[in-house]
Design brief:
Strand content: under 5%
Radius of gyration: 25 Å
Number of strands: 0
Oligomer: single chain
Shape: extended
Helix content: over 70%
Structural class: mainly alpha
Distance between the termini: 64 Å
Length: about 180
């Protein structure tokens, strides 16, 4: 039984419209993805090392327990006892780590804005935009950094971020790693 060409015409039109909509959506997605990639600051080794140093400094503050009054000391002792019962030896939580990561980059951006325009422009041209590198690193690798810091602390963070994740620096250690 042969189909009439009039019955297949609506089918062809529907397929053409669907293909055009898909192509338009793909083009918009690629345009958005390209814009996002172009907005990211390239991370050089020096900028990565400096940004991670600031991130480490912010993350180290999480583990420090300071108290100003005796009531705070009692609360700190109670928290430490609860951690020992849960077998956690640190006061890190994923929320505190995430806040510290964002806070480190915000602090860098604020301190960079206080510098004069010429110095900031020269540093950016030289590939030493520390705040931009920090933001790029945190946006791209936030989950990996959180997992590492939660499990192992800040030890080895510079090697993880600058060598393994961003590949901005050459391998510094000679030991074999998996």
């Amino acid at each position: 039984m042969a189909r009439s060409p009039l019955l297949s015409l609506p089918l062809v039109l529907v397929l053409l419209l669907a293909a055009a909509a898909t192509a338009r959506a793909d083009t918009e997605y690629l345009r958005d993805e390209t814009r996002r990639i172009d907005d990211a600051v390239p991370v050089t080794c020096a900028a990565c090392a400096s940004a991670v140093t600031h991130i480490e400094r912010a993350l180290r503050r999480i583990d420090q327990t300071t108290f100003s009054s005796e009531g705070d000391a009692e609360a700190t002792n109670a928290r430490n006892a609860a951690r020992r019962r849960r077998s956690l030896t640190h006061g890190r939580s994923e929320t505190k780590i995430r806040d510290a990561l964002g806070g480190a980059c915000a602090f860098l951006r604020a301190s960079e804005e206080r510098e004069d325009e010429e110095k900031r422009a020269a540093m950016t041209r030289a590939g030493f935009d520390i705040a931009g590198a920090c933001e790029t690193i945190v946006e791209t690798h936030e989950e990996d950094i959180e997992e590492h810091v939660f499990a192992d602390g800040v030890d080895g963070l510079k090697d993880l971020v600058c060598v393994r994740l961003t590949r901005a620096c050459p391998r510094l250690s000679t030991r074999d790693e998996l």
